[in-house]
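Worked problem 6 (solution included).
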Amino acid sequence: MRVGRPLKGCCTIALISGAVSAVAQVNLGGPVGIMAEALRKQGVTGVPSQNPKEPSGFPPLPSSDTDLPPPREYGPEEKQLQIIEVGELTETGTHIHIEGGVHVRYKGYDITSDTLDGDKQTEMFSASGNVRLVGVDSEIKADTITVDFRRKTFRSEKTHVDLKPSFFPNGSLLDDVYLRARDAYGGQKEMWGDFTSFTTCNLPDPHFELIAKATDIRPGKRIILRDVSLWILHKHILTIPYLSIPLDNRQNHIMPQVGQDPVAGYYIKVLIPIALHGNNDTLLAHLDEFSKLGTGIGADYTYQNRTMSGTASVYGIVGHWSEQDLTIHHDEHFGKSDLTIDAQYANNDWQSSPGSRLLNLRSQFTLPQANGSFDQVSYSQSTNNGLGFSSLQDSLTFNDSRVWNQWTRSTLSLAYTSSSSSSGGFNGANGYDSKMLDVQFDATSDLKKATAEFQYMRNIPVGSSAAGFFGTENQTPVFTLKTDSTKILSSKLAAELPFQTDFSFGQFGAPAFIGQGINEVWRTNFDFSFSRPDHPDRRFDYTIDTRFQQGLYSDNTAQYVNGLNLGSRYTLGRDTAFNIRWGYLAQHGFTPLDQDRTGDSNLVTTDLSFRPLKPLLLAAQTGYDFNAYRQSIDGWQSVGVRAEWTPFSNLRLRSLATYDTNQKAWSSIQTDFAFKPGATFLSAGFRYDGIQHTIGEWDLFIDGLKWGRLKTSMVLDYDGYAHQFTARHFSFTYDMHCAEAVLQVLNNPTGFRSGTSIAFFIRLKAFPFNTPFGVGTQGQAVGAGFGRTTF
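Solution. The predicted structure is:
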C-alpha cells in the first residue's frame, strides 16, 4: 500500500530493486556481531558503546534548518509570557488575542505565527498561519498548532517536525529526525502522526523516506510505523503493514544481515516485526539460515501496561546443530509491591555454551512498608550440565529492613543455600553436596554522641555435616559503640583533630587448633584512628594517618596493632610535584582470628614529576622495604621511569620503563604514540621484554584514513613470543550522505573461535551501532596503546 507521494532524491543507496546483496548486512543500527549476540543470549543488555577503537565513520549531518537559534535553557524571566514582536493585541482578563504577526517566548520555546490565542492561567495557546515553534530539542512548523505548556503537549495540522538528538535520551539517535504529518500530536514522552513521512536525511528532497499511515515515536524506546512504504530515490522499494525501529537495543535491527563466520559458515539473518493490538506490545520474529549449523527460528516479545512490563525471547536452531535458548524478564506491580523475574536457559548454544545446558533463574518480591521499611523474598537457581560435569545451586532469601524511629533501624537476613556438583559423568561420584542456612541481623541506633551497633551472623549447616560446626565468619553476637570527632567535639576542633574510635565485645568463629577443638572465641576490641586530610590547593602539604588497635581474646591471647602513615607533597608547578610517603604497620602478640591479622609493613615510596620543557613531562617512582632488608633481601622496589612528550596539540608520545631491582635489569619498556593529522587518527606501540630480550608485543591502530568518500580503519596486534599476529581487523566505510556502506574483515587467528569473518552492511548515520571491530572473540580489547583519544 502506497501512502503519500515519494520525495525526489539524487544519490544511490546500495539497495537494487529491493534486493539485498548476497554478501551484505543491511542494517539501520549496525551489525549484531557474533560476540554481541552471544552476550545478549547470556542476559547482557548491550555491548559497551565507548569502544575506543570503534571506526569513527563520517560526521553527523547538520540540521536542515540553518537559521535555528542555538540550544538554550529558559531562565526565570521566561516563566512569564514574553512578547517580542506583536501586531494588534487584545487582552481580556488572562486571555490574549494577537493578529498581524506575533513572536512570543514562553518556558524555553519561541512561537512565531500570524495569529495567536491563549490563556495565561491555563497555559494553553493556539497559533495559526505560518506557525513555528522552536525549543531546545525540537522545532515544529505547521498551519495551526495548539500547545498545552502545563502538560507539555501539542496538537498541529499540516506539520513539519524536526527532532534533535537531544530529544532522544541516552544517545539513542545521532542526527535529527524529520517528520511530516497531516496531523501530529503528543509530547516529550510520546509523539504520534497520521499520514506521515519519516526520514533522517537533511536534504529538501531526502534520499529515502518511510511513508506511513501512522507513526508513533517513543524517545529512547522505539519508532513504530504502520502501513509503511519505503521509497528510495523516487522508487517504491517495498510496502509492509508494520515496522518497529528499536532505539533501546543496539543488538536488534530491522534489516537483513548476511555474512560469514568460521563456525556458523555463511549466514543470513532476518528480523520480521509483527503488528500486535495496541502500541505497547511488540513482537519481532527471527528467521536465520547458517550453512554449517542449519535454520534458526525465534521471537522477541515486549509487553507493557499499567501493572506489568517485560520481555520474552525464544530461539532455536535445527539441522546440523541443535540449540534452544530462552530469556525472560518480567516486572509486575501489586499495589506498592513489586515482583521481578529473570530467567535464562541455553542448551548447546553454539556461541556461549556448546555442549552444555545452562539455567539461571532469579525472582524477587518486595513489599514496602511505612517509614522506609520493607520485606523482600528472593529465590535463585543456577545449573550447569556439561560433558563430565554438572552443578546445581539453589538459594532462598528473606530480608527485613526496618526503620523503628529516626534513630534506630535494623536488617534481618535469612538465606538458605543448597549447592552440589559432580564430575566424571552426570552422575559421577566425585563431587560435593552442601546445604547451609545463613542468619544475619544488624541493628544500629544513633545516640547523638555515639552510634551503637548490634551484629549477629552465623552459618548453620543443614544435614549430617552440622555436628561440631562453627563457621569462621560467625559473630554471635557482637556489640559495638562508635564515635568520632564530629560527635563529641566542636566543629572547629573536630576539623583540626579528625579521629574515629570504637569499642566492641562479642563472640567470633575461629579456625580450630590441631588437637584442641577451640573454635568459639570471645573478643574485646578497642580501635582508634586519626587522619589529617590532604589539602590539594596548597603548594606544600602533608598527611598523617595513625591507628591503634587492642584485642583481648578468651583463649588467653592478646594482640595490639599500631600503624602510622606519613605523607608529604611539594608542588612545583603544573603537573610537577614531589611526593614521599612512609607506611608503617606492626602486629604484636597473637590473635586466633584471621580477620584481625594485619601483618607487618615498613615501606617508603617516593615519586617525582616535573616539566623541564612545556611539552615534556618526566616522572620517576620507587620505594624501599625495610622489612625486606631485615630479612637480608634487597629492599629496593622496582623503579619506574615515565616520559610524556606533546610537542604539538595533535601529537603525543609516551614511554614507561620498569627496572627490576632483583634481577638487575630493565624488565619492561613500553612506548606508544598518538597522532591526529586532521580527521585521521594514528597510534602505535610496542613492549620490550628486557628479561627475555625480545619485543613481546607491538600494535598499530589507524582510524579514519580518508580518500574522498572512503574511510579506512585497521588494527594490527602482533605477539612477539609466539611470532604471529593475534588480530588483524580492517574496516572500510563509504560515505553516502545520510547513510554509510561498511565492509569489515576481522581475522582472529588464535584463541577461542579463531578464524576470519567478513561483513558488509549499510547503516543510517542517525542510528548508533556497535561492531566487533577492535574487539576479540571473548569481548576483550585488541591491542594496547592509546586507542582513539582526544587532544
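Discussion: Residues 34-41 form the longest helix (8 residues).
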